[in-house]
From TrEMBL:
It comes from Apiospora phragmitis. The keyword Oxidoreductase applies. This is FAD-binding oxidoreductase. The keyword Flavoprotein applies. Residues 58-229 form the FAD-binding PCMH-type domain. Belongs to the oxygen-dependent FAD-linked oxidoreductase family.
Amino acid sequence: MDILSMNPGFSISDQSSLVPAASAACVRLGQTFTNNATFTPQHDAYKPLIQASWSETTWQAPACIFVPRTVDELQGAVSILVEKEASFGVRSGGHMPIPGAAVVDNGVLIDLSRFTDIEYNGEHDKVVIGTGLRWQNVYDYLDQYGVTVVGDRDLDVGVGGLILGCGLSYLSESYGLACDNVVNFGVVLADGSTVNANEYSHRDLFWALKGGSNNFGIVTSFTLKTYPIQQVWGGTRIVSWYQVDDFLDAMIEYETAPDRDPLASVNIDLVATNETIILTLPTMEKNRPAAFSVFDRFETTLDTTGIKTLTELMSEFPTPPIPRIRHHALTIKPTKQLTAALKAVMLHSPAHAHHPIRHRRHRLEAGQPRSGGGGGAIGNALGLEAVPQSWFGLDLRWWDAADDERMRTAGAALYAEIEEAAAAARDRGGRLRYLFLNDAHEGQAIMAGYGDENVRRMREVREHYGPHRVFDRLLAGAFKLP
Ligand SMILES: Cc1cc2nc3c(=O)[nH]c(=O)nc-3n(C[C@H](O)[C@H](O)[C@H](O)COP(=O)(O)OP(=O)(O)OC[C@H]3O[C@@H](n4cnc5c(N)ncnc54)[C@H](O)[C@@H]3O)c2cc1C
């Protein structure tokens, strides 16, 4: 059953336990939008709406949940929240596992899951996608036209959060990050107005949204470039743990090869708990690239590589349903010395993923200003250094809420060991300033990692588009400007 049809309308009973401003905003939302858009704890749909967030670590208790159908309704809601000075959170796909990133205790949750419009324009190689879609919806729709976009590698993740964190895709080696492929953001600002931010209009906002998360506005739609890619060579290999030493050397060999194939992409997950290495190998071509031959010497327990659609490739291994997750992000320069230091740490790590990012010219051009058309003329806000780098993500997953604190402490300790190893290797590479927002935990200083000058520019954008720092004060979220 559609969650939202479970209990239509809005009713107020016991509001006494709610924070007054949010409570007052909920009443006004319910009175203003009488079309089954506002849900309080008394509604049957309230709990399933909270539990629509992917990780149980995020399940808090908002005063109410507002689910707008149109941009007009969202604009009206923002005006009410600002007028009442109510704290609120914004959710698209609900996959960020950070507590309070979207669902906020005693505040108002704005759920954007009804923004699901999608429209492909084959003449201009673009698609407009609503922020409430999941990547599976986007890829399934585009498959009928034989094209795709730079989006997520996991089909269930939401469109909005991924792009606003810049988004790492299997296509990123060739076409940059997801945010680099945005040609227009449709945005609702703190004063309730809407703007289109693109290369020609509101250029400063356009730049800041490429990495700026929810600091500047609520994005309702994204226009992305499309690419004529459908059938690819690729798949997953599972390698037994006893080969891990040699495997990590092969990874360095792959990462530092001078002539790496820009159409090939590699992702590895080291899963110490079940003693496997999961290697995902997509290329954007129909032939197996020579660059992957470095991995051929490893004995596999499973190998699904072959020709298939990129969507099929991504659906082969859905994320295991372990309900609680905590990420840690680290950016390192791939050197032998550092990898050797990391090996020991990894051996007792529950799981971590490793995304090599080869800063070839094409990628730098995607992320930094360049001449010519499209979003590339403006660049993104990440301030990436022009060196080959690996975005290293430590993922801890567990079952019980009783273990939350233990996992937080264990994650911090493990991360500290990895950081120490990276710091020790600094003279030969080591740790880089940038941290990948989409893989980070709430204690990580993400925006500061974009560099002083970019933070200064983003502060200007925030002042310009949200006087009185409305979103900074009222909109919950994991990563604020320092
Ligand atoms: C299983 C799994 C696989 C993943 N795989 C990848 C991957 O391959 N590549 C990658 O880059 N990342 C990946 N991620 C990380 C993912 O991109 C982030 O967690 C992202 O924030 C999820 O987006 P969402 O819309 O689902 O999240 P949400 O939790 O809805 O939102 C995340 C944050 O963005 C803000 N936000 C969301 N939508 C909007 C909007 N429209 N306007 C303003 N602010 C908004 C929210 O307020 C919140 O703070 C993965 C995460 C998981 C759990």
